[in-house]
Amino acid sequence: MIPYKMNNTNTKIIKVSGKNIENFFQNIITNDINSLNKKTPLYTAMLSPQGKYLHDFIMLKDEGFYLLEANQSNIELLVKEIKKYDIRNDIFIEVQNDIYTKVIIKENLNRKFLKKIGDKKIYRDKKFLCLIDPRSENFLYRFWINEKLNELAEFIFSDESEVEEKRIYLKIPNSEIDLVYNKSFILNYNFENIKSLSFNKGCYIGQENTAKQKFRGTQKYSLQKIKITDGVAPKLNEDIFFNGFKIGTMKSSCAKVCLCLIRNDTINNNTKTITTDNNFTFEIL
């Protein structure tokens, strides 16, 4: 199984502060920074000037600074990308090496704690910080824990298989394996539906091409959830063909249920079950 990277110790948290930090981020991220406050986390992305995926992360706002949680393997690239736009050298970034993340699928979080936090999307405790994953209110809770403290014995954290099954069920892509750095377009990968985009905020890096795909109908693919009904699922990023034409590309999977990038014209033909040239049959769920 391919690990779900925004889980356990596979992410890093960075602290970003500086002069006019809010305006700075508003110009380089896909979501609206005005939607972020001390009570609500934000999920967003950074794109190339051509509108191609570079980074995605979860943001929290605190007094005079932001905290960003991103895939650990891309932290150095993310820091460089942020600093690239810091022309006046007003932005300061610190990697929070003493904090790590654990997660619990929403339905598995104990009822006593759920009752304690109520409808709060961010809950601060002396031992940890808990936030609901902003990509979907039905997904999971994230716990930011100081490594100097003992493991939180009162919680049973979710394992990789549980997280993967729920992630794929909700059509949430794993950006580290499903998307291709500086090549993928995020609208193809369901980013609009997992709350990472604002089409009302004005300009940001990569906005022009993203808006063109949205409003001029140039988006050719979309991320779909499929079930393999016969045969063996293709490997990650293997292209899928039907009657000699490429109709999609396989993405992450969990058993027989997978995420797949599928041409929109294939979906628009009301085709629900397809037997491919790759010798497997799938159903679009």
Name the features.
single chain, 285 residues, alpha+beta, Gyrase A, domain 2, Elongation Factor Tu (Ef-tu), domain 3, 2 domains
What does this structure look like?
With 285 residues, the chain is an alpha+beta fold. It folds into two domains: 8-162, Probable tRNA modification gtpase trme, domain 1 (Gyrase A, domain 2), CATH 3.30.1360; 175-284, Elongation Factor Tu (Ef-tu), domain 3 (Beta Barrel), CATH 2.40.30. It has seven helices and 15 strands. The protein has helices at 21-26, 75-84, 111-117, 160-169, 175-178, 207-215, 264-268, and strands at 11-18, 42-47, 53-62, 65-71, 91-95, 99-105, 122-124, 128-132, 140-146, 221-230, 239-242, 245-254, 257-263, 273-275, 281-284. The chain has a six-stranded antiparallel β-sheet with strand order 11-12-13-10-15-14. Strand 3 (53-62) and strand 4 form a beta hairpin. The longest helix has 10 residues, at 75-84. The radius of gyration is 20 Å and the shape is globular. It starts with 10 loop residues before the first strand and ends with a strand.
Overall spatial form: globular
Structural class: alpha+beta
The largest sheet is: 6 strands, antiparallel
| Rounded average pLDDT | 92
Strand order of the largest sheet: 11-12-13-10-15-14
Question: What is the number of beta strands?
Answer: 15
From the coordinates shown, what is the CATH architecture of the largest domain?
A: 2-Layer Sandwich
Write the element-wise H/E pattern from the N-terminal end onward: EHEEEHEEHEEEHHHEEEEHEE
Name the CATH homologous superfamily of the largest domain. Probable tRNA modification gtpase trme, domain 1
Radius of gyration: 20 Å
In CATH's first tier, which class of the largest domain applies? Alpha Beta
Estimate the strand proportion: 25-35%
Low-confidence stretches: 1-8
